[in-house]
Amino acid sequence: MINPVFVTVAVVALGLASAAAIYRIAKGPSLLDRVLATDVLLSIVITALCIDMAVHRHLNNLILVISLTVVGFIGSVTVARFVQDRREEPRDDR
């Protein structure tokens, strides 16, 4: 059986981390800050789902966790490639 104190500490930590990520999404000075904060928030949601599965001893959310993980990875890679393409300076091929 999982100790309720550990669950409470995890919920509080995830809540504080979520608040910090939402603050960074709202106030982020650049696009990369906002994307990184969104990725962190997605990781927090995935962690909360995993904690729920561990506490209640079920695997109902496993497909959702895997789907969110794949979506987060593909989204992060896509944005990183987009930003990299924008930062490359145009070359003069004469």
Taking the alpha carbons of the first and last residues, their distance comes to 70 Å
Mean pLDDT: 91
The arrangement of helices and strands along the chain is HHH
Low-confidence stretches: none
Total beta strand runs: 0
Count of structural domains: 1
Helix content: over 70%
Written description of the protein model:
It contains three helices and no strands. By secondary structure, the chain is mainly α. The chain has one domain (4-86). α1 (4-27) runs antiparallel to α2 (31-56) and α2 (31-56) packs antiparallel against α3 (62-87).
Identify the notable features of this structure and list them briefly.
single chain, 94 residues, 0% strand, 3 helices, elongated, mainly alpha
SSE map:
Layout: H1 4-27, H2 31-56, H3 62-87
Short structural summary:
This is Multisubunit sodium/proton antiporter, MrpF subunit. With 94 residues, the chain is mostly helical.
